[in-house]
Amino acid sequence: MGRAFQNRKESMAKTSDANARVYSKYSRKIYVCAKSGGTDPEANLELRSLLEEAKKNQVPAHVIKKAIDKAEGGAGEDFDVARYEGYGPGNCMVIVDCLTDNPNRTFGDVRLCFTKTDCSIGTQGTVMHMFDHCAILVFTGEDEDAVLEALLEADIDVTDIESEDGTITVFTPHTEFHKAKQALQDAYPAIDFQVSEIQFVPQTTVEISDEEDIARFDKFIDMLDELEDVQNIYHNALIQR
């Protein structure tokens, strides 16, 4: 599982280039999270994790504050989660997560990204069964046995754990995310998470090496990433440039 996660991270790294889009996406996520679960990070664990993630991605403090203030005021838009599935270039499997205040517009925009790159958008469940919905925690360390023991003592259901090049990666069911993160923070007070998020991790990967397919894949991802409603893109493509 870890290899698939790393492949996706490497493939998607370039989609974080445009700071303005990244800030906008975090602003929307923070607003929705704070509005639905409260603006106090101590009481809203999802918000606390989201704020930590935003800061690691260098989202400016004023962007974060504006989103929380907006949620605290009670006004503003109502956003719903929308998820689309289908097949991308090279027959790779794709999941697109969105936050939208207009589902019809968002579906049309996402569908256009598929059709413009000769891809196929499917119905709910088309490819979801080929991904694991996981919490992923990555941090510096070497003793995976000690980490596993700490998690098991906290009654955490650990799906997988890896240690490579001085880095430990822990996979748990997505429902265990906050509990697992807190258990690790309790066991290792100085822990600094390189990654702490919930993702869809592909069970298998598809190698894409044809130049035309790679070009279409890049265009497809860029088109999706430019949509303000799109929050996350998950796929099982392994690009061989």
State the main characteristics.
single chain, four-stranded antiparallel sheet, 8 helices, 10 strands, alpha+beta, 241 residues
Provide a quick synopsis of the model.
With 241 residues, this protein is α+β, with helices and mostly antiparallel strands.
What can you tell me about this protein's structure?
This protein has 241 residues and is α+β, with helices and mostly antiparallel strands. Helices cover 44% and strands 26% of the residues. The chain is built from eight helices and ten strands. It has helices at 2-12, 19-37, 45-56, 61-73, 103-116, 144-153, 177-187, 211-225, and strands spanning 80-87, 93-100, 120-121, 131-140, 160-164, 167-173, 193-202, 206-208, 230-235, 237-239. The strands form three sheets. A four-stranded antiparallel beta sheet has the order 3-1-2-9. It has a four-stranded antiparallel beta sheet with strand order 5-6-4-7, sandwiched between helices. It has a two-stranded parallel ribbon with strand order 8-10. Strand 1 (80-87) and strand 2 (93-100) form a beta hairpin. It is globular. It starts with a helix and ends with a strand. The relative contact order is 0.19. Mean pLDDT is 89; it is low at 10-17.
Give the arrangement of secondary structure elements:
Layout: H1 2-12, H2 19-37, H3 45-56, H4 61-73, E1 80-87, E2 93-100, H5 103-116, E3 120-121, E4 131-140, H6 144-153, E5 160-164, E6 167-173, H7 177-187, E7 193-202, E8 206-208, H8 211-225, E9 230-235, E10 237-239
Parallel strand pairs: 8-10
Antiparallel strand pairs: 1-2, 1-3, 2-9, 4-6, 4-7, 5-6
